[in-house]
Amino acid sequence: MTLLTHWPLAGLRLTTPRLELRLPNLDDLAALASLAAEGVHDPAVQPFTAAWTDVEPEQRARSVLQYHWSRWGEWRPEKWELNLVAVRDGTVVGTQGIGARDFSVRREVGTGSWLGRAYQRQRLGTEMRAAVLHLAFAGLGAQHAVSGAYADNAASLAVSRKLGYREDGIERHVVRSEPAVLHRLRLTAERWQRHQLVPVKVEGLTQCLPCFGLA
């Protein structure tokens, strides 16, 4: 018996021209936590609803570890969240997540991501998102993908629009004790097919299908 026998997600690989996305091992998680400790965004802004970055570096790093471990422990086919590390030339540069509730019925996924500050503005965010969208639509048979970004998060909004998302309304939240407007975005399978900008290769998916609630 190997780890893959009990946890086939460990063998899932998404490859783009510059990145490999995979379930992190402990060394990958340590690298990702260190990346978070170095900073994820300009401290003057807060792009996340849960302000997990507004703490000291060591606490920020530990929260990354605990978040990934909690998602592993709470995984169910009816409610799952797959958080992958993005690796470029052997270096962990960020993380890309994709999740769903009752996916076998709803066929809808949501995504979220962040990159270390040293790796931003290099179009890596587009490749990361394109990779999990390929997994969702081509691999799992999704019909919709949703995302969201605050009005001042121009980079995230630009990635969504580039990949074919359309506006899907707004939500009002409180961020740092101030009102903030979140723009919801939605991508259909049809529009995804017309906006595939990045070639993606998927390995190890067949064994994982029951984990996603698919036969």
Automatic annotation (TrEMBL):
Keywords associated with the record: Transferase
Keyword hit for Transferase: yes
Highest taxon, organism lineage: Bacteria
Residues of the N-acetyltransferase domain: 43-188
Cross-referenced InterPro entries: Acyl_CoA_acyltransferase, GNAT_dom, Ribosomal_N-acetyltransferase
Classification via Pfam families: Acetyltransf_3
Protein name: Succinyl-CoA transferase Rv0802c
